[in-house]
Amino acid sequence: MTDGRMRLTLLGGFLGSGKTTWLRHQLHADAFTGAHVIVNEAAETPIDDALLARASAIEVLAGGCACCEARTELVERLRRLCDIRSRTASGEARLKHIVLETSGLADPGAILEAIRTDPMLVHHILVSETIVCVDGLHGLAQLVGEPLSRRQVEAADRLVVTKLDEADMASLGRLVATLQTLSPAAMIEGAIKGSPVPPPSGEGEIPEPLPELQGEASAIFPTRLQLDDRIDWTAFGVWLSALLHARGDDVMRVKGVVRTPAGRLLLQSVRKVVQSPEMLPAQEGREDDTIVVIGRGYRGEDLLKSLERFAGVKEQGDLSILRRAS
Amino acid sequence: MCANCGYPAAPGHWTETGAASPGDRLRARYRRAQVLRSVLPAYGLTAHDDGQMPGIQIGNHFGSQTIVRDLDEVWCEAERMLGRPIDPLDPRFLGE
Lengths: 326, 96
Fold this sequence. Notes:
Largest sheet of chain A: 8 strands, mixed
Shape of chain A: globular
Number of domains of chain A: 2
Helix content of chain B: 25-40%
Strand order of the largest sheet of chain B: 1-2-3
Structural class of chain A: alpha/beta
Radius of gyration of chain B: 15 Å
Shape of chain B: globular
Strand content of chain B: 5-15%
Largest sheet of chain B: 3 strands, antiparallel
Largest interface: A-B, 48 and 47 residues
CATH superfamily of the largest domain in chain A: P-loop containing nucleotide triphosphate hydrolases
Distance between the termini of chain A: 44 Å
CATH topology of the largest domain in chain A: Rossmann fold
CATH class of the largest domain in chain A: Alpha Beta
Oligomer: heterodimer
Strand order of the largest sheet of chain A: 3-2-4-1-5-6-7-8
Number of helices of chain A: 10
Radius of gyration of chain A: 21 Å
Strand content of chain A: 25-35%
Order of helices and strands of chain B: HEEEH
């Protein structure tokens, strides 16, 4: 989609997972040229900005995590950037890209929601990618013990497994396999001190069984929905909006490419927030019309059944029973 | 931009992205109403969209009527009228 909105890349990952190291290398390799970098630190003392001197513009948001205490301040800063950009004369170079490095305690989903629901930011900022760093050394233990770490992985479009040189191959393979079950739609990359290194494939490895955590109802699992000709985009949209309204806390992530009358759309949601779908260039993709739904607290097969009801694929029986309050 | 409040119109609901031409948009609107009419009556609610007036009209059998802007508001309004959200994964809805 070539609208005039600024792109925002969200960089997350658990405490000490190598976010800043990775970002520093990317800046050094000119990956985010001209981007405005915002670093959020949960602690009061900023350290990371000293490491990131190469960015063209950098500011630090210290003293609170941007997904909770410092959320208003983050929104404030982003608004200011939008303001400055709007005032830039058309001939001059305008800011096109923001990179937001979150604190290790941030839930990317919460930040996405803050941007998506802000009446001003939604017109100016499009979150283009969520990148999450996973500690190659401690990642597995964090996934087992920390619900937050799982939420971060679930929200990612791209996972970067860091510290590949410090961990042994067997546990890395296991980590990759676990990541694939948690976030099947995400691309997985590897990095050593920020420079890209292919990670182990994780093929044939058994994913680490993730125990149920306190307050977490049951295991999170992915479901693939294969859409065919009988299910049209409009019916799918009605269904998904209803599903996210009723089950938004259970259905954590939806991602896929759907063919519509207007072209191919990249659809993605994190919890209740659906990003405005992005138009993709017209080409046959193998994964077209496959939607991955990640969540818990329902049966995978019910998703397709329910979708088919909405699309009118199956005849509806007597549903008068539903009128009675449950 | 809204002429009354001076505030830019919200970008359309995400489901509206799938139709680019006016014809497709109208078709999608009718289809949306059709899908809603196949779901809502089971809950004692009605949906109406004539393709001209903006919004979707949601009502219940007690005569209450509301015009909502998009699908998100449809489900919020349905929840308000019913006192509980419409759950597409409800076993009874799935016919079990």
